[in-house]
Amino acid sequence: MIISIEVPVFKGEFLNQCIQSVFQQSSDAWHLSLVWDGGDERSRRILEEMQESNHPKVSVYFNENQGIARSRAFLSAQNNYPYILPLDDDDELAPNAVEQFIEAAKANPWASLIRGRRSFINQQSEHVEETQWFPFGPRHYFKGMVSDVFNQAQPYLIRKSAYDRTLGWQGFDDFMQAGEDCDIFLQLEEVAHFELIDEVLYHYRLHNERASDTLTSAAAFEMWRRLTDRSIDRMELPLIRTSDVPPFTFEEKERTDLTLGDLEFIVPKGSTISDRLKQIEMVEDAIIEVPRRENEASWKMEGFQASQKKIVCFLDDSVQVDDASALVDLVNALNESGADVLAPTAEQVIGFSKQQWLDAGCFLVRREVLLATGGFDTETIPNAMHLIDLCIQANRRDFTCVVVHISGISSQGPLALGWSETDFQMLKRKWHSYPNYLPSIKDLNRFSGDGARR
């Protein structure tokens, strides 16, 4: 595993110290990429000397001034390594930063971003006691949206495959292309959750020429407001921001009742349930048939990516639907409960039963849930646990999962088809930082019956 350390360069005063902090890493599993962004002559001379050295672990580029966001985007576009570690040209990495980030990445391959702590140093690279400006800890949500958008700072390691699912580094032209760091946090969180390393791995230099010092608090608040509103639109969340200073507060928009016309069905191609939907005269354009995959999450994600409507209904071969009225009842239950994820159950539950996890072969999901959480994990979670994993993601972001008794619909969930202790351990490993969201063995047995364990 190699980490791509990426440095946009504008000023040369502390650039040598920055570069040396990379060369002094306890691990050599890194590649350093630097791009000159039309900066001062001192920085250009340093990079020209670095380029002339032909160091096999260093790449140097020269561009006209583009701004910080476009320079980061340029470097990430050149990178074919699995992880990105952004570094500013006046800061330093702690000597064990690469080693610790690699260890964390191997332990948490599902994380889109892994963040460590930072300390402050002066112009002589001496430690300075300074109150941290931004929180360090899990982020907080309201109905899918992050409220504490300022809960972010270097250092952070980005999984490249997660970055490739975003729009990339983006900044604001009226703020010198700044805001790109907060924005990439928001975008990456829509792919997968973050993990934290409670150790100082980065040294942030305090001096009078920092680009960030030219931005006022008012400018920071304005960028946070814009980024928040942009994220709400991108995830199609029915929210309105109601405060001007983070942590932001939000209000839910009034929802209009949905109908079968707002629904698309995601089914395996050639399945019995696909034929059944056509028999009960569901509109064929609303049925998205996806080639079967051994990985359940893969065909479901492929189906969602082909969908366009406000709600999607996932159905597998275990599902039996008596008639169209049962599906109407299912959509009505979503409206009445206000749920974000809803599954029918054969159990005689009273009204709508809020659940932390669902296990069903048939379930409805509002589009914004899948956009906000990244959807199903297609890489690390076994089939038996993929719906529980989605529910954990949804619950973390303050969405609601509900079961309701619907006459005329029956199915078997992934757990009922069989699960193992190994499956459960994989789920526990992924969510080790959030143990309160995990089911217990007793919970799994309640869903599936003891006989489903294998």
What would you note in describing this structure?
This protein has 454 residues and is of the alpha/beta class. The chain folds into 2 domains: 209 residues, Spore Coat Polysaccharide Biosynthesis Protein SpsA, Chain A (Alpha-Beta Complex); 193 residues, Spore Coat Polysaccharide Biosynthesis Protein SpsA, Chain A, CATH 3.90.550.10. The protein is built from 14 helices and 22 strands. The strands form 5 sheets. Strands 1, 2, 3, 4, 5, 6, 7, 10 and 11 form a 9-stranded mixed beta sheet that branches. α6 packs parallel to α7. It is elongated, with a radius of gyration of 25 Å.
Instruction: Find the CATH superfamily of the largest domain.
Output: Spore Coat Polysaccharide Biosynthesis Protein SpsA, Chain A
What global shape is seen? elongated
- Average pLDDT value? 93
| Total domain modules | 2
Query: Distance between the terminal alpha carbons, to the nearest Å?
Result: 34 Å
Report the uncertain regions.
none
Per the CATH scheme, the topology name of the largest domain is: Spore Coat Polysaccharide Biosynthesis Protein SpsA, Chain A
Biggest β-sheet strands, sense, barrel: 9 strands, mixed
